[in-house]
Design brief:
7 helices, mainly alpha
Length: 105
């Protein structure tokens, strides 16, 4: 049993070392995934360190969270990708894109 506990502790220390080495990359991944998961607390913390990108917009479109889509479009000037709207059946995001650009592509 003690060997098992020691292995778990070693594994935990390894994970913590990898986590701290890759913290900036992890925070950016968490930022992207927060748009998919819809967690504004995680999003606001990650936005302190990173600017959102087009993948964040893709995740917002995928999640059908129109507030996040408009936030990314208006506050960070990230365009709505019509292909993502089609891929994820998000007509609302497409209509916002069309309303803003008068372009269907």
């Amino acid at each position: 049993m003690i060997q098992f506990i020691n292995r778990i502790e070693q594994y935990d220390m390894t994970i913590q070392a990898v986590w701290s080495e890759n913290l900036p990359n992890n925070l950016f991944l968490f930022l992207q995934l927060s748009f998919l998961g819809g967690n504004p607390d995680i999003m606001s913390e990650c936005l302190k360190c990173h600017k959102p990108d087009k993948e964040c917009m893709e995740y917002a479109i995928m999640s059908h969270n129109i507030d996040f889509v408009t936030f990314l479009m208006n506050e960070h000037e990230i365009p709505i990708d019509v292909d993502d709207c089609i891929r994820y059946d998000n007509i609302q995001a497409f209509l916002i894109h069309y309303d803003q650009t008068n372009d269907i592509k």
